[in-house]
Amino acid sequence: MTETVLGWWGVPLAILGGAIRASTPYLFVSLGECLTEKSGRTNLGQEGNLVLGAMTAYAVSYLSGSPWLGVLAAGATGMLLGLLHAWVCQFKKVNDIAVGIALMLFGIGVAFFFGKPYIQPTAPHLPAIGFGNWSDIPQVRAALEINVLFLFGLLLAPLLSWVLSSTRWGLMLRTVGDSSDAADALGFSVNGVRMVATMIGGFLAGVGGAFLSLYYPGSWNEGLSSGQGLIAVALVVFARWDPMRCLYAALLFGGAGALGPALQSVGFSSGYYLFNAAPYVLTLILMIATCSPQRTLTGVPGELSITK
Amino acid sequence: MKALALVAAMEGLLIPLLALLLSLGIFGVFLLAVDNDPFGVFYSMYRGGFGSPFSWRNTLERAAPLMLTALCTALPARLGLIMIGGEGALVIGGIAAASVGLSLNGNAPWLVMIAMVIAGAFSGGLWIASTGWLKHYRGVNETITSLLFNYIAIALLNHLITGPMRDPQSLNKPATLPIGSANMIADIPELGVHWGLAFGLVLCLLYYLIFQHTTLGFAVRIIGGNIRTAKIVGLPVGRLTVMTCFFAGAAAGLAGMIEVAAIHGTANGSLAAGYGYAGILVAFLARQNPLTVIPVAILLGGISASAGLLQRSHHLPDATVFILQGIIFIVILLSETLYGRLKLLCDERGRT
After folding, report:
1. What's residue B171's pLDDT?
2. Could you read off the pLDDT of B23-80 as tens digits, one per residue?
């Protein structure tokens, strides 16, 4: 009944719901990557962290019965891979972007290797809060069913913004990211700071993965991530290394990703796969629009290799 | 001068070999940790990749696309770019070759073949050239662009094979109509491997000659070394960048054409089988040298060909190969730090 009442209005509503749902992995990965990049390193291995995190979270949630334990385990694996990235990159002449690609392949390999037995069983999911329960319309309820992790992410963005701008640790991190020579002269441990930043970044990406397998889409399989971890890296460039802008950008990308399924839900199914490409095309357009060969971007950490 | 070149050559051989051995060691420890016999697995990998004429055929059939996708990373690397769009260029090349093959079906097979080669190479070339163009003229990071291009290419493939180009007969696995057995690439007599392998070998050799032994290649290396110098000496940096990327993409596009015309006979989802990503590893392992790409592609082709045997006789999932590839990749990158640092070789260098 209500299906017909809403009609095409279901599309923007589904996009809103989708933006909130689908943006969570983007949000966590991009906040983590933002921190890592602020320290002067790029970690493309975030895609591997995301996939491995998704598998770990699902497996641990299934075995222990506690989804939150799964989230923590996912963060821990992300942290380990982040540690590996930082350790390998501290040596001279080692290229951080290439190491990221290697870790991406490695992380996905490990996830597929250990993930085989968990494709079938059902694990307990993360809880969500129904902010739309006042409404009788099921689409409104569905759109406003918000996962607790998203709320964490919502708090994390301003927190990270404050840490980076106003704390001693944030200043140290930004110094290391802008000029390792200056940081050296001040007596900061450049590699130490970068290692911590990459590990926290990996932790957050792992948590983002946990959202994928434990809430939306809510199961573990080998095609679970379609490059969200990599899009999130591009998203950080677009957000100019600002955690609050990462939040807005993540919502935008979540909305773009929800376009295909939203149109399908109202019976518009031709070109479904083309609409699925919307986030990639959007990223590309935004990257082209915001980059320029003549000037460096505002807010870019001076030591970052990905903008050179 | 000679001695210095010798040291460089020795380093270039010794360090990757050491890295490979170390990777196998780490992989062995991993196998022990998951309750498997490392030496048994190594032996199976050898048997599955190189142990019989059948496994050699399998290996070479995989090595052919790997050589071509590796070139897609190796050539831009000489410009100082990290290009990882081989997967997308392969898919695009495959789509283009299949469309041309289908629309020219019925013409003389040699004509269709030439048209498919041109379509595959040209479309893949344009695909990667545009990322090079965006890098040079718009300042957009090529690693991210080429990656996004991969996903866009795969989305396009899925759209075409489930929609406009779908063969109604292909129920479970969407695909285009078959290009017809007359238009397929034949096998090399005696060897039993399709002619696509020859494409790979020839292109590796050709690119090696162009980029190692001509002025053009030298100019490209200057750009990779120091772009400011290149501009000061008046090199057309933009044109050279786009052109090199075109050559690189053409190789990967050709790989897609070969996959369609020699293996699958149609364009389908199997085109995105990961050859593009494995090609990145091949390129780095070969230190971005088109000639070294050949043996490295055969080695990695062998590793991936052994996946089936590992599954059957050791109950290891097919992702085992990914793990080994990942370990090799990480260790190889780590070993970059050793160049010019080996004690023994440094002494040699001191004497010259």
Report:
1. 78
2. 999 999 999 999 999 999 999 999 999 999 999 999 999 999 999 999 999 999 999 9
The residues spanned by each domain of chain B are: 1-36+317-352, 63-315
**DSSP reduced 3-state for B207:** helix
Judged against a pLDDT cut of 50, whether residue A113 lies above it is answered with yes
Whether the bond between A217 and the residue before it is cis, its omega within 30 degrees of 0, is yes
B274 shares contact with chain A (CB less than 8 Å): no
CATH 1.10.3470 fits B63-315, yes or no: yes
Q: How far apart are CA B37 and CA B42, in angstroms?
A: 9
How high is the ipTM of this complex?
0.90
Instruction: Determine contact, residues A201/A86, Cβ cutoff 8 Å.
Output: no
- Position B351 scores a pLDDT of 46
Residues of A in contact with B162 (CB under 8 A): 272-273
Structure tokens at B88: 């997308």
DSSP code string of A1-66 = -HHHHHGGGHHHHHHHHHHHHHHHHHHHHHHHHHHHHHTT---TTHHHHHHHHHHHHHHHHHHHS-
Scanning every residue of chain A, which has its alpha carbon at the shortest distance from the alpha carbon of B137? A293
**A147 CA to chain B: closest CA distance, Å?**
28
The domain segmentation of chain A, as residue ranges, is 2-123+137-290
Pick the residue from chain B with its C-alpha nearest to A92: B337
Q: Looking at the partner chain, which of B140, B150, B325 has a beta carbon nearest the beta carbon of A109?
A: B325
From the list B343, B259, B342, the residue with the least C-alpha distance to B19 is: B342
Cα atoms found within 13 Å of the Cα of residue B126, Cβ hemisphere only = 9
CATH number of A2-123+137-290: 1.10.3470
Residues B71-96 pLDDT 10s: 999 999 999 999 999 999 999 999 99
Reported as a single tens digit per residue, the pLDDT across A9-60 is: 777 887 888 888 889 999 999 999 999 999 999 999 999 999 999 999 999 9
Q: Please tell me the distance from the alpha carbon of residue A115 to that of residue B337, in angstroms, as a whole number.
A: 34
From A84, A93, A105, residue closest to B339, measured CB to CB: A93
What is the average pLDDT across B277-298?
Answer: 94
Please report the pLDDT score of residue A307 as a whole number.
Answer: 66
Closest Cα partner for B272 from A25, A68, A227, A237?
Answer: A227
Positive or negative torsion for Cα A83, B273, B101, B61 = positive
Instruction: Name the residue among B137, B140, B336 with its Cβ closest to that of A94.
Output: B336
**Chain B window 291-320: which residues touch A at a Cβ cutoff of 8 Å?**
317-320
pLDDT tens profile B182-240: 889 989 888 889 999 999 999 999 999 999 999 999 999 999 999 889 999 999 999 99
Of B143, B150, B319, the CB nearest to A109: B319
Give every CB contact of residue B46 below 8 A, 6+ residues apart in sequence: B306
* A-to-B residue pairs, Cβ atoms closer than 8 angstroms: 141
